[in-house]
Each structure stands twice: as C-alpha cells, then as structure tokens.
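Field reference: sequence -> structure
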Amino acid sequence: MAQIAEYFRSIFFPNLGITLRNVGDHISIGNFEIRFYGIIIMIGFLLAYVLVTNEAKRTKQNPEMYLDFILILIIPAILGARLYYILFRLDQYIVQGDVGATLKAMLNIRGGGLAIYGGIIAGVITAVIFCKVRKVSFVLMADTATFGILIGQILGRFGNFFNREAFGAYTNSKMAMAIPLDYYRSDGNLDYLERTGVITQKMLDNVVNIDGMDCITVHPTFLYESLWNLMLLVFLFIYRKHKKFKGEFALIYVGGYGLGRFIVEGLRSDSLMIGNTGIKVSQALALVCFVTAVVLLVINYVRCAKRGWPVAVMGDAAGTEVKISGECDPADTEVETSGEADAAGTEVETSGGSDDAGEKKKDDKDATK
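Structure field:
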C-alpha cells in the first residue's frame, strides 16, 4: 500500500526524461502535519531578510529597521494573500448555517490558497504606515524591499509544486509536467477540480499512461513564473550600481513582474475571475501594473536625460543622513539610517555644482524632488 501511495506522489517531466518519486506535500511530527508550503514561505521570509539587509547596508541604511518591518509584515502579508484569494472564491469557503466551519475553512492555509497580489497589496499598506510612523522614505524602502519580494516569490512558487496546484493548461511541450490523477483521487479533490475547471476536459482527453498511472500533462506555470522572477532579480543585482532615481527598482519590479505574470496567467487553468466576465483578475491587474510602471519609468528617464544623469552617492561612513542636490534625483541620495534624525539632528546637503564659499546651499534643497 505504501508503494502504491509513493507512485501516486510521483511527478514526471516525461519529455525531459525526469521522474521525481515520492514527492510529499508535508512532514509529520507525531500527529501534527507541517506543510512544505508553509515551510517554504518561512524560508522565503528569511532569505528576503538576508537580501534586504544586504541592500540596506550597501546603501547606508539601518538594516535593523528592515528586520522590524519584516517581523511586522509577516501576519498582514499572509492575511492579505488569503483574503484576496477568498474574495474571488467565496463559494468554496462559505458553509451555510455554520459560521464556525466557514471561519475554520477560511483560516486553514496549510494546503495553499494564498494569492501573491493580496500579499503585495497588504505589504504596501503596511509599509506606508510603517514609513509614516518611522519618518523614513517609502520610495527608498520600496526599492530596497524589491530584492526581498522577488526572492520570496521565487521560492514561494515551489509551494505550488509540492501541492500540485497553480498549474497551466494541457500541453505536450518539452516542459510538460505529468501529475497522476490518483493523487487527486486519494485526497478526494478530483471531482471538485473537474467541476470547477481546474482540471479541464482537454486534460482528461489527453491523459497519458506513465508507469501504469493515468496522468494529466500540464504547463508547470509555477516554474515559469519562478524563473521569470529569478531573471528579474539577477537583472536588478547587475543593474543596481547604475540606478538613476529613487523608486526605479520598485518600478522595474512592478513592470517586469506585471509583464511576466500577464503571460503566465494566460496559461493557468485555475485563475481567479472577475465575476462571470471571463476576465482573469491577476491578468487584468498585471496589465495595469505593467502599463503604469512603464509610463512612470519613461517619465522619469526623460526627466533625468533632460537634466543630466546623476552620479550615485550613498552617504558617509558615519551613517549621517545625506541629501545631495543636483540636476536629477540621484540614486539613493536620501539615506535613512535609523528611521529618525541623527543624534545631532544633522542634515547635510551638497550642491550638484561647486560652492566657492564652502557653505551649505539651502536653495538647492528641492532640486531633487
């Protein structure tokens, strides 16, 4: 029986000649199950902290501020991701006449059911409030957090892999992923997945037999999105020394992720929909994000090109908050070290040109705004 169950948990990439045996979705400690999905999310938060604090140190910010933010963010991000998912699938969670059962179903995230856009929206709201309280630059913080968001998304998608969810439509392409139908039968979800169109008739019409098991072959969209985000992250690492203005990294992420998500979402069979319109929520939102980010990037690049490209200045070794006036908003010129003014209340400003008197030029203060 154990051997049969092991076969059900196999995942194949038949056209690549790859077979993964006994791919579980949880570990058991006594009678308690810990889902790999949750473990991956926690690992994502830890690696996000590493990348974000590294970027904070590079730009002379206070890394401890980001630790505070990440600890505050965990619960709102998960709740936001869950709420977003539930809002578009209320029928799955409402148990008529039983409020307790409804709440239990809504709060049970061990098996998945999180939407990244909901997490990002909750994260942005949390960040705005955090920056307001700490009196730090939201735009600079958004640039820094971009590295953490991407690594979290890269890893998070593999939670979908272990849960055999968030896959795409039928395909027999080189990248096709084959999942045994008996895996879904074993947990009683097959009928529901067929009824809701997650497992489509085309998938069932093109079932392939691998090792004596009937399997659907689908696009591994979790992998496509993860690889796309990895390319975005690598690009930002290469490009970060050439940053032109505050907010550039955040806009590149919003536009880049929006483009990738729009394409990948078109392949998904389990997308959240806007009512009965047939419009995929995430695809529509991805398009809005892409267009908005591109417009804002073009506006800022044109502005900087007209006024002269700035030289990136990070701040002094002592961690003093430095603002440097110039033709265009220099990269990382407003450097937050603690979320508050320094002990002496010092604010240093340097002109984009020379200062014969060697005095601080207050007149240039707004030149970077």
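Note: Strands lie at 11-13, 18-20, 26-29, 32-35, 177-180, 208-210, 213-218, 322-324, 348-350.
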